[in-house]
Design goal:
Elements: H1 2-14, H2 16-24, H3 30-48, H4 54-78, H5 84-101, H6 106-118, H7 122-135, H8 140-153, H9 157-170, H10 175-198, H11 229-232, H12 244-251, H13 254-257, H14 259-272, H15 275-286, H16 294-308, H17 313-321, H18 334-351, H19 364-380, H20 387-411, H21 416-428, H22 432-445, H23 450-465
Helix pairs in contact: 1-3, 4-5, 5-6, 6-7, 8-9, 8-10, 9-10, 10-14, 10-15, 15-16, 16-17, 17-18, 17-19, 19-20, 21-22, 21-23, 22-23
């Protein structure tokens, strides 16, 4: 015990010059300095005694972080220059001691990493990541953090990709790591194309009237190439020429054409063969609306899901929604995409059974109807939607609501709460007529449900206000 007290006293004596400087510059009062010294003494004796826990180190580090934040605020307010690195060095010292003693505690490592990142101590952070990954190679969250740091902070995609690939060697059964790897690749593609748009390289710079007309043997005139003064005298050019063919070749590379995200998805599905994971990939990819290769990637994901589980509501829902993703509701191609989506919806409803074979999806048709109603409501809430498209979506929603009602009837049991959720969704979007038809049927089926009765009162009052 004496050795522990001596060690604690040694660490406390090292902080005396710092406390004296803080008192001399009137950043902290004498009473506050005494309180700080007492608090540090309590923590140091607790850490150096037998039976110390990782939480003791975490609380000590948290206390020092709060103290350092207060010191900075007061120094800024008083216009006093104080040693900014002293507090940071002390916090690093506490966390370093913590990870040395409890190197198996991932929470301490994450606290250490998070603080180093906030302080922008890049060299220190690289050292911490190396040590933590060497000790915990089977922790996917560490690999994800390292890749995110390499990609987001350092802008090094090669290093980020290396972290992900090394992490998958140790954590190949981590679904989160597979998804984050694919997300990292999509973020890289999105950044590249965003830079090209900013630089004005996203437009096709080839001449509009190329020699295609010259190849027409039936043409009654000859199209001559356009010659400008810059072609005769290149010194007159005011901007640097851009090689469009080089840009096309760059876009066709696996890194930008979507081949890498597709390969990651295929490898993950070979590993797990799970529809829910495939849906996770689909929804994650769908978030990158501005990536030109999005349509190709989503089509591949949906096609593989359908081929793997042709009657699964998860696979069919992805297959149905795929043409609309990435398409703005005001775009000229939206009606064509919507028509294709509705055709897929009708075909899917014809093939999916009402009663399923698996316990995970006992009512696949009802599940598909619920998913369809959800995305129809999202599109109906969009602003600037064409009136004719709105009518088509509303007609489809009414048809889905009728079939949903039939599906609930086939499912049996007390489904009042489940139906009430959809009634609330309709009411929240102002679809009171559709909600009223579902309310009248549901109250007749479950007359004792207080929630349905409350929704009926809300629906009646809405009709009166209208």
């Amino acid at each position: 015990m004496a050795a522990a007290s001596d060690k604690a006293r040694f660490y406390l004596e090292q902080s005396i010059p710092e406390l004296q400087e803080l008192e001399r510059k009137k950043i902290f009062s004498k009473e506050e300095i005494t309180s700080i010294a007492k608090k540090r003494s309590d923590y140091e004796h607790k850490l150096n005694a037998r039976g110390s826990q990782p939480s003791d180190y975490a609380r000590y580090a948290e206390y020092e972080m709060n103290l350092e934040s207060l010191r900075r605020k007061r120094a800024k307010r008083l216009g006093v220059k104080a040693g900014a690195h002293t507090g940071q060095r002390r916090i690093f010292f506490v966390l370093d001691r913590a990870t040395r003693k409890f190197h198996g505690d991932v929470g301490l490592w994450m606290q250490y990493i998070d603080y180093a990142r906030k302080q922008k101590a890049h060299n220190k952070l690289s050292q911490i990541l190396t040590n933590s990954l060497r000790l915990h190679p089977t922790k996917p969250e560490l690999w994800i953090f390292a890749a995110d740091y390499a990609m987001g902070t350092q802008g090094d995609m090669i290093e980020a990709r290396s972290y992900m690939q090394r992490g998958l060697r140790f954590c190949k059964h981590s679904r989160e790591l597979w998804l984050e790897y694919a997300k990292t690749e999509m973020m890289y593609i999105a950044k590249i194309f965003a830079r090209r748009r900013i630089l004005g390289l996203s437009q096709d710079r080839r001449p509009k009237n190329q020699a295609s007309a010259c190849d027409d043997s039936d043409a009654d005139h000859v199209v001559l190439p356009t010659i400008t003064a810059e072609d005769i005298n290149p010194s007159l050019r005011t901007d640097d020429p851009i090689d469009q063919s080089a840009l096309d070749k760059l876009s066709a590379t696996p890194a930008l054409s979507g081949a890498i995200p597709i390969a990651i998805y295929d490898a993950a599905m070979d590993q797990f063969l799970e529809e829910t994971l495939g849906e996770g990939f689909f929804n994650m990819y769908a978030g990158f609306q501005d990536v030109p290769c999005l349509s190709r990637v989503l089509e591949h994901v949906a096609d593989r899901l359908v081929s793997m589980a042709p009657k699964s509501p998860i696979a069919l829902d992805c297959h149905i929604r795929q043409p609309l993703i990435g398409m703005k509701a005001t775009a000229s191609g939206f009606p064509v995409a919507l028509s294709l989506t509705l055709d897929r919806l009708n075909c899917s409803l014809d093939k999916v059974p009402s009663i399923g074979d698996s316990k995970a999806q006992p009512y696949p048709r009802l599940s598909l109807l619920q998913r369809t109603i959800d995305w129809l409501l999202l599109y109906l809430a969009l602003e600037g939607l064409d009136q004719d498209i709105h009518k088509v979506l509303m007609a489809t929603l009414r048809r889905m609501a009728i079939q949903y009602q039939q599906g609930i009837r086939d499912k049996g049991g007390d489904r009042a709460e489940e139906v009430a959720d959809y009634i609330e969704k309709f009411q929240s979007r102002g679809l009171y007529k559709l909600a009223a038809s579902l309310i009248s049927w549901s109250i007749h089926t479950w007359p004792s449900s207080t929630r349905l009765l409350t929704l009926k009162d809300a629906s009646d009052s809405a009709y009166v206000n209208q």
